[in-house]
Amino acid sequence: MRPIIFIIWYCCFGLLWSCKEQIQEAKKSDEGRPNIVLIMADDQGWGDLSFHGNTNLNTPNIDAIAKKGVSFTNFFVQPVCSPTRAELLTGNYFTRLGVHDTSAGGERMDIGVPTIAEILKNYGYKTAAFGKWHNGMQPPYNPNARGFDEFYGFASGHWGNYFSPLLEHNGELVQGNGFLADDLTDRAISFIQTHKNKPFFVYLPLNTPHSPMQVPDAYWNRFKDKELVMNYQNPEEEDTQFTRAALAMVENIDANVGRISKALKNLALEENTIVVYLSDNGPNGWRWNGGLRGKKGATDEGGVKTPFFIQWKDHIKPGITVERIGGSIDITPTLLGLLDITDTEFKADGINLAPWIFEPNSDYKDRIIYNHWAGRTSLRTQQYRLDDENRLYDMVSDPEQKLDIAQKLPKIRDSLLQEKLKWLSKYPPLTKETDDRPFTLGHPNFKFTQLPARDAMATGDIERSNRFPNNTFFTNWTQTKDSIYWDVETLKKGSYQVTLYYTIPEGNSGAEILLQQGRNTLRTTISEVYDPPLKGMENDRVARMESYVKDFKPLNMGVMELNAGRMPLVLKLDRIKSTGPDVRLLQFERIE
């Protein structure tokens, strides 16, 4: 009897598995769903749009998304880049995703939490990200490992040159083509054209107007001598040249948004494409922002309020305004709601805002949106904001946060304070001291891993090119006793082709450099000097805070055997003359 029972069980199991596969294939073959183009600016303030009343600039293409669709007047993200991006992609607060910094590994978004790209892939979408990722560089943290079929851009927090810089394309290092925001838009349009007959999700996180303040002449010339009619409420604190550069960069963004809109129209995709526009935090300088208090990095209204516009022609009525509060944690639930996708495994802190998109006066239960950064926590309800010092403001009558009403309304203040304490207890953020995650190398599903100087530490007299680690390199390597090391967990044992990106001045050829993992070593000689000048300043409209950059030469160091497990990778010098190389990064390619 047992063999017969086994055969019956086996057939039934096979039938069930076949049905499951058919359901999955049916999901993947659903080509009737709308496309999504999600555009996000970097460090653009709520007030950096003509739609919001700023007459210093003109943004007709971005404004048109709001005019043709819906605009949210009370939409809140986090005070800085990485947290907002993590929330946007997952629908969950960044404090429960491992994100606690904007560099050196603290920007990494924990694996195991599905992103919107991963969910949409299960429904047949082609997915791509073009631009600034900023949620982890090495697989399994990089975009190709988080649901994106294609990635072109950079995974770091900022980039040092916006004109034909070194970028990555699906893990490989490549040279950019022209002004970065234009290049990223070119790639997005090409992807849309290629996949126009199937549903696609394009995530376009542009790098501007984040510093360094670089923009093509055509846009800068409009602003370099322009009188700014609208200024920050404390004008003595505003750097007007910085403001001019930022606004010029925003007008370039607007032109690229126009190019996306034109491409969708020419391809007859307008009616079947949801277009979303927002920024990742408040403005990166003191400039006109509707009188709001705070800028990037602050948990006050000005640091976290952003434009949020959604257009879906013939589905969302034009000119809709939603007063209800929303936030970056709501973006994934809302997009899934608009697509009528119900994923039972998807859990979110955010909510689906679609009901208010179609009917702004729908019933609404008040809620709390939390903002947190650098030990400061603020929270927002529909009417009130409790700031990081537990002052209470009526945001309806006092959007500029001028009058603390905590003593007038102590019960509201105390109740919100209790909610703040509960949230911090429920989602305690990681810190540099409590984050023990190593950098990963050699993920079995990915061929390339890069280890940049940003993620390394150095000993002795070796110096980082700038105190802001993103896009830096190591220099002043003058002693063989000094070294550079990465805290690494190698995920797969094997052979790896190693490429060093370096520069070294005249007279220092013959330096011997050694890469070491325990007893595994790889040694090579730097025989070719290469000493290009620093650059970036020739394109800067305002003096930068970040590192200047230069072109680094790739050196094939050879093939190295790596063992699996957590063990530091150490770069040493065995022999030098007056100085060793400046080091930008190591690139590893697994040899099958």
Q: Label the overall shape.
A: globular
- Can you give the mean pLDDT? 93
Low-confidence stretches: 1-29
Which strand order does the major sheet show? 7-6-5-4-8-1-9-10-2-11
Q: What is the fold-level CATH name, i.e. the topology of the largest domain?
A: Alkaline Phosphatase, subunit A
Instruction: Give the beta-strand count.
Output: 30
Helix content: 10-25%
Q: Identify the CATH architecture of the largest domain.
A: 3-Layer(aba) Sandwich
Radius of gyration: 25 Å
How far apart are the first and last residues' alpha carbons, in Å?
48 Å
CATH homologous superfamily of the largest domain? Alkaline Phosphatase, subunit A
Protein name: Arylsulfatase
Domain Sulfatase N-terminal: 34-341
InterPro entries: Alkaline_phosphatase_core_sf, Sulfatase, Sulfatase_CS, Sulfatase_N
GO molecular function, one term: metal ion binding
Can you walk me through this structure?
GO terms for molecular function: arylsulfatase activity; metal ion binding. The structure is a single chain. This protein has 592 residues and is α+β, with helices and mostly antiparallel strands. Helices cover 23% and strands 24% of the residues. Helix 5 (180-194) runs parallel beside helix 7 and helix 6 (217-223) crosses helix 7. The model is unreliable at 1-29 (pLDDT under 50).
